[in-house]
Design a protein that fits this description.
The chain is mainly beta. Helices cover 7% and strands 40% of the residues. The chain contains 6 helices and 38 strands. Strands 2, 33, 34, 35, 36 and 37 form a 6-stranded antiparallel β-sheet that branches. Strands 17-18-21-22-27-26 form a 6-stranded mixed β-sheet, with no helix packed on it. A 5-stranded antiparallel β-sheet has the order 1-7-6-3-38, with no helix packed on it.
Length: 515
């Protein structure tokens, strides 16, 4: 598994892959993926999986012809590091090394000024706005990239349009092109904000944030302990924001950075005794529903889906009871994995149901009236609603994807995810069962599965599932595109890329038809 977390060389020019099996004739377009790819600069190394410099991968599919290429994002973080042969911009788990040309005094002074910039190492996700593509991370900055050449085109600072310090790399996009996102603003008036981003005017295509505005806000409970979040849920009428007990200890961050040079990740803390709170925004007004929805403590990176049914909100999320996953993703730990018990705990898929109009009920009466779930919601003496989850499957799963174009925000049956480092899973939320794919020879590590619906498909899972797979044998690495049948979850084809092309662990991606 060590090969998943080692630096890779880019493959700047597209090369043809060897296709084995049959790719459906209707599948035309590009699978684009991003993730960390460069883990060392000069004699310095990044510490955390989230720190590696962004590399973009592309598989272009034209029937039986498949090509592969990869390019490093030419972010400021990357370019400055190459120019100075050292880590110049701090990342999530790695503080920038001091400039050897700076005096001790100027280094000290820089901690109290705005001279240290946010990273623009956008290695988390991709977003499509009309026919343009942007790489994203959780700082305000994102990068426009060319989806065909993978060239880095232009940096966009979202904080120039909406006052924010962080914004998720998991925006939701509605059929009319409207984008929704959640942001954080730090300081004495710290808040969590719901951001609405209508499509820009035709003449403003290069400015995707042209019409962005903050529609609704929630005040932070403590400015010195702002909560961390990675994604959120969206339905036709509501946005679901989970305030979880994973927070940044600002005091610890300030003093540790000054005295010991430690990074943001060092100041991340998880409180297992603090309950989770679900906040529900009305999309029409930005107002937050007055009901206080609570649940036992958990940590989540990813929402699966959410939908409305019979006056209730169904919220499906991948959850872990502990907050250890952030620490488990340090490269020193990942590269040291040699046995199954060392593998970071995978999240479990849970369903919570929030009654939209709760009324005081007698005793412990369950307000959830849906017949196809065991989830519960009970009004407590203080008027809050305590929610108990239902498991959607018994096995751990992460990086969930659905038939997004047709079922996001709607009642659905299937989702796909990573069920361990060497397995992909397809979950049926009706039967609570999972189908698995794993290479019979072993040593193959798939990435987040992306579902592509078949044109004019008649069922939710009619289509294909695509995954970039890294094959490792000792020190050698290779890469192939895996194509699975969305219904049977059996392999249809794979496109193997000739050496010396390679890849490593990558995080998220999108499929762009006809690109």
């Amino acid at each position: 598994m060590d090969a998943l977390f080692r630096t890779v060389e880019e493959t700047a020019e597209a090369i043809q892959a060897d296709v084995k099996g049959d790719i459906p004739g209707w599948l035309k377009g590009s699978l684009l993926r991003v993730g960390p790819g460069l883990f060392e600069v000069g004699d310095q190394s990044y510490n955390h999986l989230f720190d590696g410099q962004c590399i973009i991968y592309r598989f272009n599919i034209e029937g039986s012809k498949v090509t592969y290429q990869s390019r490093y994002l030419r972010s400021d973080s990357y370019v400055l590091a190459q120019q100075q042969n050292r880590i110049v911009v701090s990342e999530f788990g790695t503080n920038a090394y001091p400039d050897p040309c700076k005096s001790i005094f100027s280094r000290f002074f820089s901690y109290f000024t705005s001279s240290e910039k946010d990273t623009d190492n956008c290695n988390v996700n991709l977003m499509q706005v009309r026919d343009e593509v942007y790489t994203m991370t959780e700082t305000p900055v994102m990068w426009k990239v060319d989806p065909q050449t993978l060239d880095s085109v232009e940096k966009v600072d979202r904080s120039k349009h909406v006052a924010l310090n962080m914004m998720t790399a998991h925006p939701h996009v509605e059929p009319d092109g409207t984008i929704w996102n959640m942001a954080t603003r730090f300081g004495k008036d710290g808040l969590y904000g719901l951001v609405k981003i209508p499509l820009p005017d035709e003449g403003e295509r290069s400015n995707p944030m042209q019409k962005a505005y903050m529609l609704g806000t929630i005040p932070q409970k403590s400015a010195m302990y702002p909560k961390y979040f990675h994604s959120f849920g969206l339905t036709p009428n509501y946005v679901i924001f989970i305030e979880q007990p994973m927070y940044v200890n600002v005091w610890k961050l300030m003093w540790s950075k000054l005295l010991s040079g430690k990074s943001v990740s060092y100041a991340m803390e998880f409180d297992p005794k603090t309950q989770v709170q679900f906040h529900v925004f009305e999309k029409a007004t930005g107002k937050v529903l007055p009901t206080k929805y609570l649940a036992d403590s958990f940590f989540t990176f990813h929402h699966i889906n959410a939908y409305e049914e019979d006056g209730q909100l169904v919220v499906d999320v991948c959850c872990a009871e502990k907050g250890d996953i952030v620490a488990d993703l340090y490269l020193s730990h990942l590269r040291g994995i040699s046995k199954p018990e060392d593998v970071p705990e995978y999240a479990e898929a849970r369903r919570y149901v929030l009654p939209l109009h709760p009324v005081q009920a007698a005793g412990e009466e369950n307000l959830v009236t849906l017949v196809d779930t065991n989830a519960a919601a009970v009004v407590q003496e203080d008027g809050s609603v305590f929610c108990t989850h239902e498991l959607l499957c018994q096995e751990g799963i992460e990086l969930p994807r659905i038939n997004y174009d047709h079922y996001n925000g709607k009642k659905y049956q299937f989702f796909y995810g990573l069920a361990g480092f060497e397995q992909l899973g397809k979950v049926d939320v009706h039967t609570k069962s999972m189908k698995l794919w794993k290479d019979s020879e072993g040593g193959c590590f798939p990435s987040e599965p992306i579902f592509v619906p078949a044109p004019d498909g008649s069922s939710e899972d009619e289509g294909v599932v695509l995954s970039l797979v890294v094959r490792s044998s000792g020190e050698a690495r290779s890469v192939f595109l895996l194509v699975l049948d969305g219904e049977t979850f059996t392999e249809l084809a794979r496109a193997e890329v000739p050496s010396p092309a390679e890849a490593c662990f990558n995080i998220h991606g999108i499929f762009m038809p006809d690109v």
